[in-house]
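Question (not urgent): is this output format expected?
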Amino acid sequence: MKALVIGASGQIGAMTVRDLVDFYDAEVIAADLNLERVKKIASSMKGGNVKAIKLNATDSSALKKVAKDVDVVINSTWYELNIKIMPVAIDVGAHYTDLGGFYDYTFKQLKYDKKAKDAGVTCVLGIGSSPGITNICGAAGAKKLDSIETVNIYCTWGTKQKTMDAAFPAYSVRTVIDELTQKPTIVENGKHKPVSVLSGETEVLMPHPAGKVIAYYIKHSETATMAEYIGKGLKNVCFRIGFPANDFNTFRTLVQLGFGSDKKISVDDSAISPKDFITSMYLEALAASRKTSGMLDEFDFFRVDCVGEKGGRPASVTYYVRTWNDPKRGITSGRDTAVPPSITANWMVTGKIKKRGTLPPEACITPEPFFKELGKRAVMVDEEFLFSTPFY
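Got this back:
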C-alpha cells in the first residue's frame, strides 16, 4: 500500500504515519506545508519507508501530481480543506479518508458520491475517533437491536494527575474554537434541528477516572449522517462534550479574546487572522512537546448510548471507548483519532471495504472486526447490552 498523508506533521497526522508503518509496512508520502517539521516526523520512523515533502494542499495541480501515484489519500488537515482535497483524490482514482466535515462540509462532500462511484473509489468521511469510532458504535448498536430510536454520544478527556494546566486536545485547536462558536445541530424526531452552543447541559457517567461529567451540545459530524445511514427507525442523534474544567476555561477565554475570527489583523508589515495565528502557535507547541520525555497519564473517553427495542421490549446498547497514552512508544491518547484512518486506508486498498462512493463510516465499515483492530493498538471498545427477558 502506498499512502499520501496530508498534514503529516500535526499531532494526528504524525501518529497516522507511524501506524501505517508499524502495522501495514506501508510506503508513505508524508506531506505538510512545514517541510522542516515533516522531515523530523519522517526521520523518526525507524526502518519505515517514509518520504517527506512540502505540499500546499490548496494547490490542486501540485496535489494531483503527488496523489496520482498513491493508492489512498489520508487527509489529516482541518475540515475546511476536505472539500478541496477529496475531489482531487477522486479525479486521480485514489481512495480517500478524512477526520470529518464538521457537519456542514459533510453534506458538500456527499454530493460527490456518484463521481466517486464512477471513479471506482471509496471516500470515507469522518473516520477519526469522533466522528468515526462513534459512528461505528452507533451502527453496531443498531445491529444488536430490532429497532433503534436514539443515539446519544458523549466525549471527555483528561489526566489522572491533578494539574492547573490545560491539556492539548486530541484534535485541532482550530476545531475546538469552532465548536465553541458555531451553532450545533441535533436530530430530534427525525428532523435536523439547530440548537444553541453549549445548550443541552446534562450529567453523564463516564469510565473511571473521569466519573460524572457535565456535557453540552457542540457542533459535530455524526448528526449529519447517522439517522439516514443507520436507519432502523433512528430519529434522535446528538453529540455532547464534557470539557475538563481547566481546558474549558482556557478555550472559552481564547474565544472571548477573538481567536475564533477569520478576519486578518495587520501587525507591523504582516497580516494574519487570529484563528490562523493560534493554529500556528498550537502546532509549534505540539512540536516542542515532542522533545520532552515526560508524559502525563492522559486519557480520551467516549460513550455511545443506543436506545431501542429487542423482542418487543425496551433495550439499550452502550459502547465505552477508552484510550490511554502509551509512554513506552511515546504515543498520546490521541491515537484513537489517528489510528482509524490507517485501518480504513488498509481496508479500502485490500478490498475489505467494498462499497464505492462518498460514505460515512457507519455505511461501509463492519464494526466488530474494526473494534478488534483498534484493540491491537490499545484503543479499547467495550459493549454493554441491557435488555429484559420476561418469564411469563
